[in-house]
Amino acid sequence: MPFAKLLRTVLLPLGLSLGTVLGLGCFFETNDDQHLAWLFRGLTAAEPVRAVPLYFHGLGYLLSQLYAAVPALPWYGLLLAALLALATVLVFAVLDRLLRPHLRSPALVLTLTVFFLLAWLEHWLWFSHLRVALLLAGAAVLFAAQRPGRRGVLGCCLLMLLAWAIRPSAAVLALLAAAPGAVLLAGSWRQARPVLLGAAAALGAATLALSLTQSPATARFRAIDSSLAAVVDYDLRRPSPRTPADSLLVQAVDEWMLGDSTLVSEAGSRRAYVFDIGRYLTRVLPAKLGSRLPLLLRDYFAVLLLIALLGWGASRRQPLRQPVRGLQLGWVCLLLSLATVLKLPPRLALPLLDCWLLANLAACLPAAENLHRAAGHPGSSILLPGRQLRLLLVGVALLCLLYGAKTWHRHQMLRQERSRHEQALADIARRSSRHIRVLAGADDLLKSLSPFQNYSLGPGPVLWLTGWPSHDPSQARLYYRLTGYSGQADALRVLATRQHADVVWILTHQPARWLQRRLNARLPGEPPAARPAVALEPGLILKADTTLRLYNIRWVR
Fold first, then answer.
1. Could you please report the per-residue DSSP string of 24-66?
2. Does position 181 have pLDDT exceeding 50, yes or no?
3. Is the model's pTM score more than 0.85?
């Protein structure tokens, strides 16, 4: 590989990525990633978890073994960072081959740098396994589409399977989003067909194998998660409790207290929640559009402007006018569907916008040179009159300054949030180390943490009662090891009878209220209460997070 190409496609993207991590930092976008890291380390389970039902299929085993071998290293963050670096290099290689026939080397390096600053930097700043899966799968498809042949198809399939292992739904969505760009980069559907069909076949085979080999506990987790996602994630169903147990379930879901298997079930979710089309059309849909579209415009104005300019330029080309207009309409419909029916968080929005941007860029360039961009072909450079060139440079510089100011503000906010959360976690560890810790409502403390640092609450078991990990199959084994009961309610009743020095309850107000109600309730099939009622009394407030308090157990006769 010539040094100039190596510089543009490998050294430049890796250098920009490293500069972002060292200069601005790297922050977990959600609490999911820290939850996953703790499960693979065994900090919130009875032992290191080798597999979780929804994510990191096969990779969970690798991570648990790496943590067991060298526990001091942040293997979760290092693995995702390596895959994100690979995706970054692949996308730069796609852009380099696409633009090299049209730009001279200095202009090409400048263009690649601007692309990173406006459309890629956030992926490193706001870290998420969902971003990595989407970007790796999309980059693999686009890279292979430019390089026809068996090796390209095989490499694409392998990387798609790796992205699928991280998060299957993300790999499927990435294939859909990258398909238009792949066709344009390949030159035709016929040339892109082996890559797209090969990737689809690989994903289908992996999904089929997973469904045939899943355990009953995994199948039950998936069913419950799918049922609850329509409520807590997408707001598609409203509560309509019919029994006291249904009321407990609704309150549990509101507080993300999902670990009580006798209460939280697929059947209970179907019974306690209903789909109300009138409510969805009059309240939910307008609320989603009113909140998400302005955020999309505010956060990604630079990328949206580039997409609009490239789409306008591509639509002026007579042979592609109608297909390009259809492509723009399709992208708008996809984003609106995600924003209104499902959800469109930043970790999903920007990867999709990147795919849209690359597709429009491929459509904007002359097809003849797209089809004949073989290595060594110099192509023709894009020459603009001096005035237009100066206006273009000023516009790009202004766009970079505006987006840079927004990014710097986000960096400052994330850094402050990380500092508060690290102080709160240290406070929890200091107050509860070497005890059994029962936590609920503290999930926000796991946001904005560093992927490249191992966090811990100190020695001692941790029962995390809120969030999706609370109903992970590993939690039943943890409850059984501590109390002899695998059910959450029975296990917590046993812990409530122990001395205060043995168990530390760290809760927020609403989860504490629900927990007190649940410990004193008896659902159908459970034995009647034969002991005094349990009262959870608030105690000391954590200085770093005033919503969390130490609770004391009191028996009321």
1. T--EESSSHHHHHHHHHHTTTSSS--S--SSS-TTHHHHHHHH
2. yes
3. yes
